[in-house]
Amino acid sequence: MLVKNWMSKTVVTIEEDDSMQHAMSLMKEHKIRMLPVVARGKLVGVVSDTDLKRASASDATTLDMHELLYLISKIKVQDIMTKTPITVSQNFTVEETAELLMRKKISGCPVLDDDGLVVGVITRDDLFKVLIMLSGLGKKGIQLAFQVEDRSGSIKNITDVIRKYDGRIASILSSYEYAAPGHRIVYIRTYDIDRAVLPKLVEELKQVAMLIYIVDHRDNKREIFHDLVA
């Protein structure tokens, strides 16, 4: 999945010669926490709500309200912005971007096209939307987690049982994180299962794999069978 398909394409930008007060107004109006700073259409920096708070918290704390408003109207964005901003290409994958934001401890960054122009912004909220889509949460089905042997056919054994009970598969995700050696953790979201046969389904699933937990998002019920240990 590429960033260009998930980023926010309506980008609110600000000029480097604009005032800090204008930056504050834009963030409040659009309910955003970051503004790409441009000069002649090219990205030259980023100003965040953290930059604004940092600039307001120094000498400004000793000023009265009128003096403070005057001060922030005179401070230029170029004086408080981050001048070497972290960016991603529109052709970055969502996974690469998530790893970058986490490693750099930032909430989002501008997205650039091949000419270096700002074409979007990607934030943690956008990445959460991807996670929700991948997990199939919107279908309000049943999520099952298993530990399975890391071999061909181990997942098919599970899905065959689910389909036997007329279950439809919304998503399958797997990870080696927290899995025992030679195993992996598999997360399956399914729907269209008759709740009346769910107990029987669970017992049959336990015969083909180690069932870790089951969560019924429709009825808000969950049962934990095993705890994963880091």
UniProtKB/TrEMBL annotation:
Keywords: CBS domain, Repeat. SUPFAM superfamilies: ACT-like, CBS-domain pair. SMART domains: CBS. The keyword Repeat applies. It comes from the Bacteria. Residues 7-65, 81-140 form the CBS domain. The keyword Mitochondrion does not apply. This is CBS domain containing membrane protein. It comes from Syntrophobacter fumaroxidans (strain DSM 10017 / MPOB).
